[in-house]
Amino acid sequence: MIENPDDLHLSAGEITLHLVPWLGGSVAAFRFRTTDLFRPLSDEGREARRVVDAGMFPMVPYANRLAGNLIRFHGREIHVRANNPPERFNVHGTGWHRPWKVEHLGPAEARLVLDLHDEPEAWTYRARQSFALDGSGLGVILELENTGPETMPFGFGLHPWFPRDRDTVLGFGARWFHQEGPDMVALPAGPLPADFPNPGPLPDWRLNNDFGGWSGQAELEFPSRGVALRISADPVFGHLMIYADPEQPFFCVEPQSNAAGGLGRDPTASDPKEGVILLEPGEMARGRIRFDVLPLAPSGQKP
């Protein structure tokens, strides 16, 4: 195992991946030829060690925000700390703010691991990210193991950032919708908006919502870049969080297991719409997310 590694560069054919394990186990760049598929980590973000500026980072041991920084579980109150000032509430857990170690490295693959224990917060866990490139794209396997002494609620996912172009198109299927509430904390599930566009251009209004009952497939087209991405995820990732603000040059499409805010809405109820995973000591959750690169013809069609 390599301790505190420098940047890692993987490649397969015309696809390259640049990892920065020391920065929250995140991705600095994902490229097809010379075209950025994720928003690349800027020099400023790197210098300031701002994980939120990375191209993609892991969300463990849960995804999205917790209202009141509080979870009620099995008669306990679990308190967490705000971790992304100036936001009031904890977001995406602890994994993205810790350095990860390199457990395996090859020309087109890498496995990163994070062992977290002796923290002020209640979660004790081991997380792994296994990255594998091939000539068609990138596969990422996420593993999350409860290494603590008691059953705990968990969730996990990936948080990629994509460049936003005028002609970007997004399409996916879902069955319900979590409206954004105060302090960007999602509300319980409701019906899909009547004007839900699928597929279609990114909205000209701010979107920051969790789409539940996700089909596990999403397509992103970037005609001016001559490329499209197909996201495919295992059924454990039943939610897709979308952040798109027309004032920003980027947007997010985040596969995740738990509903946004779900761990703060009594996971003991075992509501399938919340997607909270209860792991006993030594138990593990696992899932794969794939990013397939699809070149577009000049007409904008896939060849």
Please tell me about this protein's structure.
By secondary structure, this protein is mainly β. 2% of the residues lie in helices and 46% in strands. The protein is built from one helix and 24 strands. It has one helix at 43-48; strands at 8-12, 15-20, 26-32, 35-36, 56-59, 70-73, 76-79, 101-105, 109-116, 125-134, 137-146, 152-154, 157-163, 169-172, 176-180, 186-190, 200-201, 207-212, 217-222, 227-233, 239-244, 250-256, 277-279, 284-295. The protein has a nine-stranded antiparallel β-sheet, with no helix packed on it. Strands 5-13-22-21-18-15-16 form a seven-stranded antiparallel β-sheet, with no helix packed on it. A four-stranded antiparallel β-sheet has the order 1-2-3-4, with no helix packed on it. The protein is globular and about 60 Å long. The N and C termini lie far apart (42 Å). The relative contact order is 0.18. The mean pLDDT is 91.
Write the layout of secondary structure elements.
Blueprint (H helix, E strand, L loop, with lengths): L7 E5 L2 E6 L5 E7 L2 E2 L6 H6 L7 E4 L10 E4 L2 E4 L21 E5 L3 E8 L8 E10 L2 E10 L5 E3 L2 E7 L5 E4 L3 E5 L5 E5 L9 E2 L5 E6 L4 E6 L4 E7 L5 E6 L5 E7 L20 E3 L4 E12 L8
Antiparallel strand pairs: 1-2, 2-3, 3-4, 5-13, 6-7, 8-9, 9-10, 10-11, 11-24, 12-23, 13-22, 14-17, 14-19, 15-16, 15-18, 18-21, 19-20, 20-24, 21-22
